[in-house]
């Protein structure tokens, strides 16, 4: 009985988190998947398989998905990980200077796009509670992100974390309201 109640509460929590990220359709699919999987094994709810699956399931991250695909990073970010991904929203990409995204998506700019995207990825699964003010995070591209925490709000290189701790089987995703750029 306790396991069933826990499974139902966990399913509801996942649905709420996914809905809060603008992904109501995915929340229903996730809820159905979790309900099906908890019937077979009531010890733990199912998380999306990969950090890529979280982005794919969110209509607010279609630009990020297109960029990850153009950079050839889908397979890498679908690997075992674990990864921490700081995922800019479509609005974050739209706030870049006009033409920036279109230019980065061109095949001849794949290296630049890959550098920017890998600046949003850290090895390991870091939850919000693992982050501290002033902390430096080494990114997959070799540069460092800086964590700022003020009045309980977490920022990464000046971008606000608007949703935290979206857990996948191979890591965790934190949603950002801006695209952070590597320092040159």
UniProtKB/TrEMBL annotation:
Residues 1-22 form the signal peptide. GO terms for cellular component: extracellular space. Keywords: Signal. InterPro entries: Adhesion/Biosynth-related (IPR050904), FAS1_dom_sf (IPR036378), FAS1_domain (IPR000782). It comes from the Bacteria. Pfam families: Fasciclin. Residues 48-180 form the FAS1 domain. The keyword Signal applies. This is Fasciclin domain-containing protein. It comes from Lacibacter sediminis.
